[in-house]
Amino acid sequence: MGRGRDCGCHGKFSDHSPSNLSRPRPLAPRPIRPRLPRPYPHNDPPLTQNTRCAKLSPAAPLLLSPTAQAYDNPIPGFDTWNTINLRLWKALPAREFDFASFNSGDYGHAVEARQRAENISNVLYPSDSTYQGKELRLKQQYFFVCATLHDVMRRFKRIPGVAWEMFPDKNAIQLNDTHPSIAIAELMRLLVDYEGLEWARAWEITQKTFGYTNHTILPEALEKWSVDLMGSLLPRHLEIIYKINWHFIEEVKRFFGPIDKDERVLGERIRRMSLIDESNGKMVRMAHLAVIGSHVVNGVAALHSELVKSDVFPDFYEMFPERFQNKTNGVTSRRWINQANPGLRNLITKWLDSEDWIKDLSQLSNLRPVCDSADLHREWREVKMACKMRLAEVIKRSTGITVQPTALFDVQVKRIHEYKRQHLTALHVIALYHRLKSNPNLDLPPRTFIFGGKAAPGYHMAKLIIRLITAIGEAVNRDPQVRDRLKVVFLPNFNVTNAQTVYPAADLSEQVSTAGKEASGTGNMKFQMNGALTIGTMDGANIEIREEVGEENFFLFGLTAAQVKDLRAQGYDPHGIYQGNAELRAVLDLIGDGFFSRGDSQLFRPLLDNLLHHDPYLVLADYQSYVDAQASVSQTYLDVEQW
Fold first, then answer.
1. Which residues contact 27 (CB under 8 A, 6 or more apart)?
2. What residues act catalytically?
3. 3-class state of residue 90 by DSSP
4. What does the alpha-carbon distance between residue 283 and residue 580 come to, in Å, rounded to a whole number?
């Protein structure tokens, strides 16, 4: 077999011949310890003026020249001889122990280098609410990028007689959102400063090597670094970024000059497209760098890719329309059915009389001739019940809460964020609780709400939403009048392992993000392939899922992305919606009066004030449409055959 292509900053393909595969391989990670060169060497190679931005800055104490220790993890494929290699990195100090400091009595300094280095890879995505957190994030991003690119180039240079123009043919590096975008400046640094390539040649190679996947349209997620921070940690990279920007602005002038004509219009466009945002202090726009430095840019769902072109990077799309495309996210049935749900796997295999569907999901369409079979329906219900019983055991073990598998399992597991609107579902829980307390004879199917997910360390509002959900659960679950009909569970430490128990057990999948905010989503796909029905907005991959499963199998609600824009343009008044909807008013007043916070009316005040006076993600605007769709869910669930 030939050499595979390097694939991204997180891992690469390896050589594997049948003879190699027949030999035993160690199961534990294999440590390799390539030494990273100092990012800013004192002894620079001789360079001509047109191969560099300016004189290299002196060595900065960014990483104290740590060691990047590689851990190779073989990833075997399904029903194939192919195995790829996932290379992970750990930061270690070049010198683990300073005996001189120790012997002089400075015991803390003796291990300081080790602690500084290990901090880089101990915890990913530290809170960036402080300067120290931002600094550590940038160190992390550079460390992983630097280690990977040095490794990629080391292996490339081992190929006999290879020319640098072949680098993009042997290495495809995909930027998974903006976080690794500093790789563009790092590859330019390596090609120009270490390999002695002229700027234009190095830039052509760099652009052909990188592709950029945008994962969000949220402005706060389009990463920016202050010029001061980058200048202190990565001075050479900042110089390179400034030179990239200079060349790019000249290109913008040539392209848009004849179009804009008015210098003020052109100047405003340049300010929008520049790599340096000077509107509120000087900031480096890493998403702009990713677009400029890549030969292709993609969104991750059809709607999202259109919004990337129209809302996020409209100027860049006008300049490089051929560079933008769509690649809808996907998940693998090998993991999320074959491994996570063996009962469903066996059921499908039995009725198709073949296992080929595991590698080709389009073959599931062959079930259509038998989809009305009473035997298939009965076996399907048995599989679903077994999955729900398994999840009920996990819930009991991890939370102490007893849930009935016969109840409707209404599940929302994902990252906690205001735009994903877990608090919209929480308001619906309170509404049901309020209805049942007012009318105990209400004809509603028993329902268990299952939440799970994690919030960013510094995201106060997201953590307050988690606190609200758990507070609602405490009140509802201990109320003897409703606890057999309504339960609320927040699963701790939601991760891939327990996700493989959650997705197969769900009856209803909550995909309720504000239209136009969710890039794609992959949990929606995992729920769908395990037979959950979806309640959702026209957002992200929900749109494509609805097209595949049929409108009749999707509980649609809420404003569309276009309607969201129109509402905001007209002037959105969430307090008016609160005043005009009696049930919504009662729900929010229960929170505001401290019913779910032991009388503390201030605990959830920031969340309430945000909803009533700002509501940036239109929770109140979509509330009535949402609860109406949920009423349809309840009615449908009562009809076993229809469900």
1. none
2. 215, 414-415, 420, 522, 526
3. strand
4. 43
How much is the average pLDDT of 554-579?
97
Rounded Cα gap, residues 484 and 45, in angstroms: 74
Q: What is the full DSSP assignment across 297-363?
A: EEESSHHHHHHIIIIISHHHHHH-GGGEEE------HIIIIIIT-HHHHHHHHHHHT-SGGGT-GGG
Report the pLDDT value the prediction gives residue 50, as an integer from 0 to 100.
Answer: 31
Q: Which helix (H) or strand (E) holds 502?
A: helix 496-505
**Cα separations (Å) of 189 from 1, 7, 180, 237, 350?**
33, 20, 15, 7, 57
d(CA 198, CA 424): 55
Q: Region 203-212: what's the mean pLDDT? A: 98
Instruction: Report the SS3 class of residue 68.
Output: strand
The pair of structure tokens assigned to 82 is: 């192919």
| pLDDT value of position 57 | 36
Q: What is the DSSP letter of 281?
A: B
Q: How open is the CA angle 123-213-224, to the nearest 5 degrees?
A: 60
Nearest to 339, CA basis, from 48, 79, 594, 602:
79
Pairing of strands 224-226, 283-285: antiparallel
d(CA 243, CA 249): 10
Closest residue by Cα to residue 629 from 423, 425, 484: 425
- The closest alpha carbon to 415, from 522, 547, 319, 497, belongs to 522
Q: What is the pLDDT of residues 154-177, one digit of tens each?
A: 999 999 999 999 999 999 999 999
pLDDT bucket at 65, cuts 50 / 70 / 90: low
Phi and psi angles of residue 479, each rounded to the nearest 5 degrees, phi first:
-85, 110
Q: Contact, 505 vs 491, CB < 8 A?
A: no
Sheet holding 297-299, edge to edge: 6-7, 171-176, 210-213, 297-299, 324-326
Q: Let me know if 322 is exposed, middle or buried by CB neighbors in 10 A (0-12, 13-18, 19+).
A: exposed
Cα–Cα distance for residue pair 20/187, rounded to 1 Å: 32
Amino acid at 168: P
The residue among 378, 381, 408 whose CA lies nearest residue 636 is 408
**Distance between CA 44 and CA 57 in Å, rounded?**
10
pLDDT band at 253, cuts 50/70/90? Answer: very high
> What is the per-residue pLDDT for 448?
98
Residue 72 confidence (pLDDT) above 90: yes
How many helices, marked H, and strands, marked E, lie in the chain? Answer: 27, 17
Tokens 């100047």 found at: 267
Rounded CA-CA distance 294/203 in Å is 10
Both tokens assigned to 170 = 């042997």
Look at the block and give the residue holding tokens 């009562």. Answer: 638
Question: What's the mean per-residue pLDDT of the chain?
Answer: 88
CB-based burial label for 175 (10 Å; 0-12, 13-18, 19+): buried
User: Tokens at residue 594, please?
Assistant: 């401290």
Question: Residue 32: is its pLDDT beyond 80?
Answer: no
For the ranges 197-211, 213-227, 427-441, 619-633, the lowest mean pLDDT is seen at 213-227
Q: Which two tokens stand for residue 376?
A: 């298939």
CA 50/CA 444 separation, integer angstroms: 74
pLDDT in tens, 432-448: 999 999 999 999 999 99
